[in-house]
Specification:
Pfam families: CoA_transf_3. One of its GO terms (molecular function) is CoA-transferase activity. This is CoA transferase. By secondary structure, this protein is α/β, with parallel strands linked by helices. The protein folds into two domains: 251 residues, Crotonobetainyl-coa:carnitine coa-transferase, domain 1 (Rossmann fold); 83 residues, formyl-coa transferase, domain 3. 38% of the residues lie in helices and 15% in strands. The chain contains 16 helices and 13 strands. The strands form four sheets. Strands 5-2-1-6-7-8 form a six-stranded parallel β-sheet, with helices on both faces. It has a three-stranded antiparallel β-sheet with strand order 9-10-11, covered by helices on one side. A hairpin with a 2-residue loop joins strand 3 and strand 4. Helix 1 crosses helix 7 and helix 7 crosses helix 8. The two termini are 35 Å apart.
Amino acid sequence: MMALEGIKVLDAASMLAGPYCATLLGDLGAEVVKVEPPAGDETRRFGPRRGDDSGVFVGVNRNKRSVVLDLRTDRGREVLAGLVAWADIVVDNLRPQARRKLGLDYGTVSALNPRIISVSLSSFGADGPYAGRAGIDPVAQALTGFMAVTGPRGGAPTKAGPPVGDATASMLAAVGALAALRAREITGRGQQVDVSLIDGLLHVQAPYTGQYFLLGTQQPRTGNGIDWYAPYNAYRCGDGRYVHLACYNDKFFTNLCAALERPDLAEDDRFASNEARLAHRDELDRVIGEHLGELTRDEALERLWAADVIVGPVNDYDEVFTDPQVLHNGMVVETAHHTGPLRVTGVPVKLSDTPGSVRRPPPGLGEHTDEVLAELNIEEGDAS
């Protein structure tokens, strides 16, 4: 069995954070049905495409079936009511007015199914001065100070590459859903779970916000470095590829000096303590860079790992998805997509007795409408 086997999830969300929450629950064994409007989830039309398929959509929507419903019609609302009655969890990321209009607000869904857990994601929060405002991941990064602490030293504020606000919110929403399931075992009742992108991004900045609350200081942008210890940087090797290494105490710095065949550096007054290394960080980076610049990246990694240095390669995706540890962790899974074999990322949470799995590829638009209607004993017909 899988941990969430028997749990039914209605994915009534679009874009990234909401659908990926439903995907994570599906990874752990839940049965997920994704409701899409006739034109499909917005992300089906985003970014590079192969035929009718978008890389954004297929990256986010494994382990679910797709049903097309037009919720503006009586037929669409009838099917939605059946799905709400069927579900244990419903996930949405609608603004409050749209949620009420479509009958996905907690008052409406709980009247149909008192045990349902309603998980709602938003950019700013369920209520308050910004509730209902349109938002998106980079806006949340900007508002929460995430961009202010990201980017090159002395440079402009920079957003993270991937949508970290969406990804963080999806994980917190999944945690909230699981906590509500546990509470339902005791109370017999469902409840509302609210997660916002800005709350999630504040959550992941805990080391920096802790510094601010304790000392009143703003964390500066430091690029690939950090102001807490040195060395901590990405270094270019002789073949033009990079490694990133860090030494957060004297032990690891001594190991680094041995790997560079410069044990004397550990005794050098400029580098003999973390405080001294920070004070002479630019010179230290130059020394390390000169030594690593004489080695290929693979030679550097072999030597540094052998000396127990904290280091890793700066990989592109071709390297990531052939990396032996990534493959060992099961983070590349081949599925039988409707276009042919398709690789997707695997299940990030490893359970020893009830492991999750990728059981379904990302669905085609409306691929499972008739199948799901039959399971709900709803007469087949045009629901779109």
